[in-house]
Design brief:
The protein has about 475 residues and is of the alpha/beta class. The chain has 13 helices and 19 strands. It has an eight-stranded mixed beta sheet, sandwiched between helices. A three-stranded antiparallel beta sheet has the order 13-18-19, covered by helices on one side.
Length: about 475
């Protein structure tokens, strides 16, 4: 039996805005074990490929302790072009400091884009990397920011090349594909789901979207009700309202600690489930978030799709991002070095449920034909019997704090647009599923000033949602 045939449950977790060198590059350093199977930060103090020059001064990667940053880092399409610093057709990866200075109009001795985490700053990620499989050539699909790359992850193409305060247009959404192929799927969201930004209104109010508080318990369901494909979402820092959870998606300026606790909870729930022996947990990041990485992007071309809001085709992938595969069907402390990006997950789904990785869409097949492989390649034939125990952490996550934020960036504005649409569609059920939505208008009416209050959940009476079948876009 092929390894993928032995997998019954695929769990997908996508974090925010960190590069591979920033999170996992330390694995190759001698003081952290010097893994020779990882393309990381070896000789970063002397090798020219790690040098970023600005104003006749050379800046190189340096270790940082976990903590909040002063602000987000530049990572839009134009800024990424600066970071990649092409000489002809070669990306030199030498423009990260330049992009940072252009955006902030300041430079310090240790520019934040060049900072990297050590093992003690990412204890859970370090545990997963040492006990499971690291993909060290997994790239964000596009040299752009959050919305285009998440569109690629969930549809296989992108009709946008930037992040704006609007709903995301799309075609071939993964939920539509799974439903068409009779695959049971579900989303577990910590707060407002990113999938609201695709303009979904019926699905988020139905049973396929559930609070993350139900995740661990649902995995123990003795019936056949446990989905074959599960998306687990953190509490997004860009959400304009937070209720019950602190932001933990690792999006700067957040510290990375809350995200480490989130990953520990997901890992613990999955490995304690009776479904663990036939489970594949995928942890990756949507894009690099402006942090340095020394590996050039792949020359994967994506033509401008019909209906796109931009006119310049993409000639490469984005920057390399962290990715770890957790499963009994991967060996402990190993790596996979083949070229992957977020559409490798879509290939995996097509391969699993149609036996052909080219059956997701023409967009995904086009990337496969240029070398982006299916994630099934990481799996081994026989399952391990050991289940490593996750390290304990001391991170405390508040459970009753509600925070409303000013709408400062475009993604926050997009969350607001999506939330207001959901309220207009079915206010009662929307407040049952996403009680924090009641505070969107409060924040807007107060002049976009942040507020912190203690509040209970909405008390709207629940009614059974009227679910509609969606036609593929």
């Amino acid at each position: 039996m092929a390894p993928l045939d032995q997998i019954d449950t695929i769990v997908i977790v996508m974090m925010e805005n960190r590069s591979f060198d920033h999170v996992l590059g330390y694995l190759q350093l001698p003081r952290f074990g010097g893994r020779t199977d990882i393309d990381g930060l070896l000789n970063a103090d002397s090798d020219p490929k790690f040098a970023n020059e600005y104003d006749h001064q050379i800046y190189r990667p340096f270790p940082i302790s976990d903590g909040p940053l002063l602000h987000d880092l530049p990572h839009g399409r134009a800024e990424v072009r600066t970071e990649l610093a092409f000489t002809g057709n070669i990306a030199t990866m030498s423009g990260f400091v330049q992009a940072y200075v252009d955006a902030t109009h300041s430079v310090v001795n240790q520019p934040p884009p060049m900072g990297y985490c050590a093992a003690d700053s990412v204890p859970m990620t370090n545990f997963l990397a040492r006990n499971y499989l690291v993909c060290d050539h997994w790239f964000a699909p596009l040299p752009a920011d959050t919305q285009p790359n998440r569109a690629m992850a969930y549809t296989g193409s992108s009709l946008i090349d930037d992040t704006k305060g609007r709903l995301i247009p799309y075609r071939n959404l993964v939920f539509d594909w799974l439903t068409q192929h009779n695959v049971h799927w579900r989303v577990y969201h910590s707060g407002l789901s990113f999938f609201l930004l695709f303009g979904l209104v019926d699905e988020p109010l139905g049973d396929n979207f559930r609070s993350i508080l139900r995740f661990a318990g649902d995995l123990h369901d003795a019936t056949d009700n446990v989905p074959e494909v599960i998306f687990v979402e953190p509490e997004y820092n860009d959400s304009p309202v937070h209720f019950g959870f602190q932001p933990n998606d690792n999006h700067p300026p957040l510290p990375i600690g809350p995200g480490e606790e989130f990953l520990r909870q997901i890992y613990t729930a999955v490995t304690k489930s009776p479904r663990w022996p036939r489970t594949m947990l995928i942890v990756t990041y949507d894009e690099h978030g402006g942090f340095f990485d020394h590996v050039p992007p792949l020359p994967v071309k994506m033509p401008v799709p019909s209906g796109a809001t931009y006119q310049e085709a993409f000639a490469t992938t984005g920057v390399r991002v962290p990715a770890i595969i957790i499963s009994p069907f991967v060996q402990s402390g190993t790596s996979y070095n083949g070229p992957l990006d977020h559409t490798s997950i879509l290939q995996l789904l097509a391969e699993k449920f149609t036996a052909d990785p080219k059956k997701y869409s023409d967009d995904v097949t086009r990337r496969r034909d240029q070398g982006i492989g299916s994630l099934s390649a990481v799996l081994q034939q026989s399952a391990r019997q050991d289940v490593p125990v996750a390290p304990s952490t001391s991170i405390t996550v508040p459970q009753v704090l509600l925070t409303t934020q000013p709408f400062l960036n475009e993604n926050q504005k997009a969350f607001k647009v999506a939330g207001e649409q959901l309220l207009a569609h079915d206010r009662v059920q929307a407040l049952v599923k996403f009680p924090q939505l009641v505070h969107l208008q409060l924040a807007s009416d107060s002049g976009n000033e942040p507020k912190n209050v203690i509040s209970g959940a909405a008390t709207a009476k629940q009614k059974k949602p009227q679910r509609k079948k969606r036609k593929p876009s």
